[in-house]
C-alpha cells in the first residue's frame, strides 16, 4: 500500500509529580508526498471533509509544498539524502477545515525503499513548530534522546528532553515519545497503529466513527491540563525561559516581545 490509514490507540501517562493516564483513539493518514496529488477524494489545500494542507507543516518559503520545504530544512542541518529520496508523511488530517496536529512524522528512504531516517514534527497550542531528526539506534526503526528546547506543555520544563522511538511504517506501527527530566521519565506517550486501506468509503465511515477528530483531541488535552492545574501540579510559564526555546518555526510573539 502506497497510501493508507492507521487506526491508532494513543496513550499518555504522567509519572510525576502526579500519576495520571488517559487514552483515546484516532486515525492518521500515511502518504508518500509524491503520490499525494493522486488521491483525489482527499482534499489537498482545499476544503473537504478530510484534508491535508501544506501550511500545517514545515514552511520555509519554498514553493511546491511540503517536500521542497522539508528538503530545505535538511540542507540547513547539513543532512545528506539521495536526490530522489522518498518521503512518507504520517499525520492527522484536517476535519472540516480544522487542524490540530500535536505531532507528525516523516520517514525518508531511498528510491529502492531502504529506510534512511525519520523526522518528528512537533507542534504546540501556540502554533509553533519544531523538527527533530531521529536517526539513532536502528532496530526496526530509530531511537534518539534529544534536548527538547520547546514549550509543549505548561506542566513540562522546556529544558527537559525527548526520547523518541519511532517504528517503521508497516502493517503495524508503534511510536513512543517520552519526556525526561534530569532524573528520568516524567511523561510517557505511545501510538499503536494498524494499517487500513485508504478509500473514500472508509473516510466517510470514519467521519462517524471518529467525529470531529481534531477538535476532540485539543479539547481532551485542555481538559487534562485543567485537572492538573486544579491539583496544583507545578506550572511553567512560556515566557519564563525564552532563551531555552531554540530553533523554532513560527515563534510566538511571547518570545520576541520585551517585557517591562
Word description of this protein:
The structure is a single chain. With 260 residues, the protein is α+β, with helices and mostly antiparallel strands. It has one domain. It has 3 helices and 14 strands. The chain has helices at 66-76, 200-209, 213-230, and strands spanning 3-14, 20-32, 43-44, 50-52, 86-91, 94-95, 103-109, 115-123, 129-134, 137-138, 141-147, 161-167, 172-181, 184-197.
Please describe the topology of this protein.
Layout: E1 3-14, E2 20-32, E3 43-44, E4 50-52, H1 66-76, E5 86-91, E6 94-95, E7 103-109, E8 115-123, E9 129-134, E10 137-138, E11 141-147, E12 161-167, E13 172-181, E14 184-197, H2 200-209, H3 213-230
Parallel strand pairs: 3-4
Antiparallel strand pairs: 1-2, 1-14, 2-5, 4-6, 5-7, 7-8, 8-9, 10-11, 11-12, 12-13, 13-14
Radius of gyration from the CA trace? 18 Å
What's the helix count?
A: 3
Work out the count of structural domains.
Answer: 1
Q: By helix and strand content, what is the structural category? A: alpha+beta
- Sheet with the most strands? 11 strands, antiparallel
Q: Strands of the biggest beta sheet: in what spatial order?
A: 9-8-7-5-2-1-14-13-12-11-10
Distance between the termini: 56 Å
**Would you identify the regions where 5 or more consecutive residues have pLDDT less than 50?**
none
Count of strand segments = 14
State the shape.
globular
Order of helices and strands: EEEEHEEEEEEEEEEHH
| Share of helix, binned | 10-25%
Q: How much beta, percentage-wise?
A: 35-45%
What is the arithmetic mean of pLDDT?
91
Amino acid at each position: 500500500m502506497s497510501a493508507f490509514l492507521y487506526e491508532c490507540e494513543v496513550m499518555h501517562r504522567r509519572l510525576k509529580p502526579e500519576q495520571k493516564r488517559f487514552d483515546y483513539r484516532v486515525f492518521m493518514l500515511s502518504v508518500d508526498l509524491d503520490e499525494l496529488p493522486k488521491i483525489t477524494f482527499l482534499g489537498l489545500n482545499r476544503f473537504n471533509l478530510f484534508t491535508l494542507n501544506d501550511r500545517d507543516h514545515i514552511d520555509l518559503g519554498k514553493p511546491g509544498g511540503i517536500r521542497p520545504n522539508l528538503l530545505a530544512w535538511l540542507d540547513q542541518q547539513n543532512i545528506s539524502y539521495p536526490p530522489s529520496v522518498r518521503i512518507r508523511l504520517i499525520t492527522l488530517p484536517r476535519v472540516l477545515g480544522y487542524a490540530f496536529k500535536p505531532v507528525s512524522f516523516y520517514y525518508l528512504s531511498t528510491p529502492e525503499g531502504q529506510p534512511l531516517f525519520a523526522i518528528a514534527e512537533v507542534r504546540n497550542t501556540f502554533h509553533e513548530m519544531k523538527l527533530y531528526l531521529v536517526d539513532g539506534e536502528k532496530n526496526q526503526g530509530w531511537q534518539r534522546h534529544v534536548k527538547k528546547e520547546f514549550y509543549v506543555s505548561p506542566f513540562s520544563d522546556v529544558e527537559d528532553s525527548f526520547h523518541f522511538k519511532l517504528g517503521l511504517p508497516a502493517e503495524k506501527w508503534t511510536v513512543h515519545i517520552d519526556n525526561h527530566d534530569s532524573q528520568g521519565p516524567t511523561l510517557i506517550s505511545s501510538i499503536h497503529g494498524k494499517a487500513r486501506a485508504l478509500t473514500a468509503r472508509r473516510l466517510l465511515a470514519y467521519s462517524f466513527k471518529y467525529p470531529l477528530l481534531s477538535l476532540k483531541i485539543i479539547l481532551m488535552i485542555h481538559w487534562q491540563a485543567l485537572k492538573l492545574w486544579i491539583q496544583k501540579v507545578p506550572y511553567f510559564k512560556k515566557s519564563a525561559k525564552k532563551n531555552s526555546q531554540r530553533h523554532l518555526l513560527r515563534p510566538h510573539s511571547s518570545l520576541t516581545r520585551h517585557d517591562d
